[in-house]
Amino acid sequence: MLVLGIECSCDETAAAVVVDGEEILSSAVASQVLTHEKYGGVVPELASREHLKKITPIVNEALTRAGIGLNEVDALAVTEGPGLIGSLLVGLVYGKALALSLGKPLVGVNHLEGHIHAVLLENRRARRAGREVEAAALPAAALVVSGGHTSLFLVTTESVDGNPVFSYTPLGQTRDDAAGEAFDKVAKLLALGYPGGPIIDQLAGFGNPEAFVFGRIKMKGNPYDFSFSGLKTAVLYRVRGTALASEAEARRAWRKSAGRVTSEEIRSHCSQATLDLVASFQHAVITDLIERTQAAAESRRVQTIFVSGGVACNSLLRARFAEAAISRAVQVFFPSPELSTDNAAMIAAAGYYKLVAGHRADTSLTAHASFPLGA
Ligand code: KG4
Ligand code: ZN
After folding, report:
1. Which pick of 30, 139, 268, 346 has the fewest CB atoms within 10 Å?
2. In the β-sheet with 12-19, what is the strand arrangement from edge to edge?
């Protein structure tokens, strides 16, 4: 089954063609980073306008790269939420109109479900390609960690009429900022650039993660919930009124006049104290993500952990989870970086399983800014 996936929930316009939820024929992504860069975050109105401009070229690109025509698509899968409502609507209405005009089945997919399926898709791809990787066995504790989400789920599967049907039980989620959002806000505070996650990831390698001590993040109630706004404020207090603040202002002025700069150039405009601060901040975020995910997995007695979403690209997160996998005898699975950040292949893969399980969206399908998974 050839599924055309469409994803427009935030600031990436994406389309992909995936065969049977495991073979990616194409995955096209138009990033809006340049549009939102100067604001240090996604501007919803600009995002929807960009999606409108990009959706047709990106769908065409996905089809061309897959070497197929629209009529060869067997079904469509579109993200129905959660996300920015104006952005979601562009992809959803586009997908719905295509499905109606082609007379092909359509399913709506939860964006978080898509991120979880990115892990399964990557695993099936790797095994198909003959790479020696373990099968990603369920049940799993799945951490979805991006600019918009930080959520933990228990993922289980059962066979219904020979087809796998997936279930998601929410275990915890952020009560304020998402982890990626905290990376972006700290980078904005320090005038390091946007998006902040990849930049901090690179700069942190040159800093001492123990130079600034941030206390453990305490959570009352559910121990698998997250909170990063306090840490972000703690970084602000370390900066405000100090030499780090004047350094950040100088960097802001330099960046304005310099145009596009490389991470090397940014690093050369950072003092050792700034590098130490970002390394310490990153260390605190990653430690919290890992400890809560491990604790959730242990509490549910599962030996498999999935990590996906933009922050899953973080090199420290990957390295620390890999260490934990060895010391705790758990299996940890990540998608490749391209499948970790927003993409439509994960939507097509998740949609495939809904389609084979008999799901079909009708014309009432609509977008939801808030759209809990498994609640
Ligand atoms: O999944 P994604 O593409 O979009 C959302 O659904 O939010 O994730 C984007 C987020 C941004 O906040 C970005 O700063 C963060 O992922 N990110 C990273 C890294 N690469 C991207 N955070 C930490 N380390 C990275 N290497
Ligand atoms: Zn996402």
Report:
1. 268
2. 23-31, 12-19, 2-7, 75-81, 106-110
For the CA of 181, the closest atom of ligand 1 is 12
Q: Rounded to the nearest 5 degrees, what angle is found at the Cα of 166, between the Cα atoms of 145 and 349?
A: 70
DSSP 162: T
Residue 141 β-bridge partners: 154, 305
Please report the pLDDT score of residue 294 as a whole number: 96
Distance CA 290, CA 305 (A): 10
Q: Is the dihedral of CA 375, 340, 349, 83 positive or negative?
A: positive
Interval 155-203: pLDDT, tens: 999 999 999 999 999 999 999 999 999 999 999 999 999 999 999 999 9
**Cα of 6 from ligand 2 centre, angstroms:** 13
CA 310 to ligand 2 centroid distance, Å: 7
Q: How confident is the model at residue 327 (pLDDT cuts 50, 70, 90)?
A: confident
pLDDT value for 200: 98
- pLDDT for residue 183: 97
Supply the residue whose CA is at minimum distance from atom 3 of ligand 1. Answer: 341
Q: Are 108 and 92 in contact (CB under 8 A)?
A: yes
Question: Which ligand is the nearest neighbour of the Cα of 12?
Answer: 1
**Atom of ligand 1 at shortest range from CA of 196:** 14
Ligand at shortest distance from the CA of 285: 1
Mean pLDDT, the chain, rounded, equals 96
Q: How many A from CA of 149 to the centre of ligand 1?
A: 10
According to CATH, the topology of domain 2-135+338-356 is Nucleotidyltransferase; domain 5 (3.30.420)
**Domain 179-302, CATH among 3.50.50.60, 3.10.20.310, 3.30.420.40, 3.40.449.10:** 3.30.420.40
Task: Give domain limits for the chain.
Answer: 2-135+338-356, 179-302
Q: What is the pLDDT of residue 326?
A: 86
Residue list, ligand 1 pocket, CB within 6 Å: 10, 146-148, 180-181, 183-184, 195-198, 201, 309-311, 313-314, 341-342
Q: Which residues contact 118 (CB under 8 A, 6 or more apart)?
A: 308, 335, 339, 340, 343, 345, 346, 349
